[in-house]
Input
Amino acid sequence: MSERVKYLLGEDRIPKAWYNLVADLPKPPPPPLHPATGKPIGPDDLAPIFPQAVIAQEVSTERWIEIPEPVREIYKLWRPSPLIRARGLEKALDTPAKIFFKYEGVSPAGSHKPNTSVAQAFYNKEEGVKRLATETGAGQWGSSLAFAGSLFGLEVEVYMVKVSYGQKPYRRALMETYGARCIASPSPLTAAGRAILEKSPDSSGSLGIAISEAVEVAAGRDDTKYALGSVLNHVLLHQTVIGEEAMLQMADAGVDPDVVIGCAGGGSNFAGIAFPYIREKLAGRSHARIVAVEPTSCPTMTQGRYAYDYGDTGHLTPLVKMHTLGASFVPPGFHAGGLRYHGMAPLVSHVLELGLIEPRAYAQTACFEAAVQLARTEGIVPAPESSHAVRAAIDEALRCKAEGKSETILFCLSGHGHFDMQAYTDYFAGKLKDVPFDRAALDRALLELPVVDEN
Amino acid sequence: MSERVKYLLGEDRIPKAWYNLVADLPKPPPPPLHPATGKPIGPDDLAPIFPQAVIAQEVSTERWIEIPEPVREIYKLWRPSPLIRARGLEKALDTPAKIFFKYEGVSPAGSHKPNTSVAQAFYNKEEGVKRLATETGAGQWGSSLAFAGSLFGLEVEVYMVKVSYGQKPYRRALMETYGARCIASPSPLTAAGRAILEKSPDSSGSLGIAISEAVEVAAGRDDTKYALGSVLNHVLLHQTVIGEEAMLQMADAGVDPDVVIGCAGGGSNFAGIAFPYIREKLAGRSHARIVAVEPTSCPTMTQGRYAYDYGDTGHLTPLVKMHTLGASFVPPGFHAGGLRYHGMAPLVSHVLELGLIEPRAYAQTACFEAAVQLARTEGIVPAPESSHAVRAAIDEALRCKAEGKSETILFCLSGHGHFDMQAYTDYFAGKLKDVPFDRAALDRALLELPVVDEN
Output
């Protein structure tokens, strides 16, 4: 029993504050712009859809933002999450590298998403909101908000992309178990939905349409607000508990990472593990390389343009400066639904521009291969999204082996794959293909980027 | 942060030995009998299908059996499992009772089953076995043995009841992710399977048939053994880590249980939480009532007869004395597949006869109602089997409320329901019915019990 596997922390070591990277950046991130005026937006522009406390966090430049006590109380249900030394994987790879992962799949909804859904539900409840509306694709975010809503007595209405609503009935069942209402989008309940259904009664929906429906519901009712699961600053902020805890646990393990890895779709779990380490790098206290992993099918950071763009296909959101494939770019179907977003979080894009992180892209079959290797050595079946971080960690460990270096690798395993077993079935049946990236489609989508005067 | 939610233990506090209740019983349990001779069976009778170390544990009267170091090393992947104070549930019930649950769903396969699958895989590997054959119904056991096999480099062949093979493709995908081969039973690979298929090409299979196939494969090949997931003494033994850890954690919490609850199908998770407490009761160190919960659709303890019976429908196994509905009794279809067994573990049956435990039966809709209440207050979606324990814990807490007593309730939450969401979908759709127990069918099945001279 000499070698430890899990590094656990007591509940008293759940962080007392979220970390806001904006406070420490050498250069502030470009502001979001109003789509009509092209001028920076103010808090009032967001008031119809977000509670005041969330808006204040979105624009805050404070370094530390206190985590309210009731949020920390709920975090106790699964936090601090474990840091695990992947000894079985190390042995299978025969690598001199030490591999650690921070496992966020222990949350009730099975991913890192409740770190922010609980916070958002709390602030909404505090401000008298009765109901939250949101969209979901694969269902990770919808089920996380449903969970948070159940604890605070908030009604939750989830607009789920119709094709996923049909394909993923068990994610929907999970939302309903938590008491949420799950609606196939486009729906007849909103003007946005009805407009689509009139033109295309058989529309299979899209995240863009579902966002429009949820925002419309939130904007149209005083008792209802909107909640978003990634991309925006306040969401990334709430996820920093991941990195703050990991840092304490790595210290308990007596190691300091040489490489920190996270998968990145909207950017929230990546920011969660990475931003605290970026702070340490900026302060000269860490030398870690920080790697953000995306799919080759939706390569915002490695193939996209850093430009102002809309967050949704319907062009209802503010313009934000980010690495984008263009709001009209439609990524091919693949199994990591949580990584199928045309843009990257503005704050993640900003640190990429500043040279503080390394982007990397992988095709999905290579990621499933890594996921299966993790399952057979560590027991955990990763979510397809998280498998991108696993792939990068394995490749770094193999590089260490080739170079004879015993580096320390830390990655975020953002969620489990219990609701994604169809993807594994397809993988074993040889049905998953790596679709070559459609450069021409990207070029077309980039031509449609809005023209913005940045001066 | 004053009130703790989780009681965790360091890896150094994983038990060093399994506890064998047989050593402390006031009266030894009746021996298993050879089906042909009616005489007590000896170790040699079991040698074709089990490794020697497992057979020795099956008949052992030693109080403590050391857990091999490599097994404890693997236990570290998820053990010690957390003990959780269900403060959210207590609040929702407005009860003065304290409710604690030991959560076994944190294991890689999502239930308590790996506590024994890892041990069984270890002993087989030690004795040079290359391949394990087993049966599975709903898939909990098959995926747990698949996980254990992947860690020890053993091939695993799982005969899965054909109707479940079709209905639960994701449990099958989980087994395949762990590298196991999953075969729909009846299959053309065994004589037992072929015999059924000749008569009934469309047979949907049964646990009895699947057992016959797996035992045939194990008995017929020198490099292959059989592994069982419940019922037998050695399986119950391996599960005692649950209760031993819980006892340490309850001490950390400064409480002693007044009621200890587990669901019981074959009896293994129940024995795991209960047997250490039965030891304490017998020694006068605990006053806890110990409650075993079964489904009203398959009520072995509350409606069955305590008699010698076969473990399988094919009458290939030894005769064991247990509470049984008769090996030919076919329980109606319901969603807690893990509780659909015609008998109860002989050792659990024995302590029931000795008056050391209280049996209780619940209908499934009442259990799903309890499961949903747990999900909405504690975040965890229970397996349908485990929901029986949740129902009993809630009822005990409501009794405490009615009586104004602040008792301490401990239950085992044996697994999560991530692979059982169809059951929740059916529940919300109002499709689950509580079928009245068929007393006449029981009477018919009991008429077929073998005649055994017990003197």
Remarks:
- Chain B touches chain A through 50 residues (CB under 8 Å).
- The CA atoms of residues 133 and 157 of chain B lie 5 Å apart.
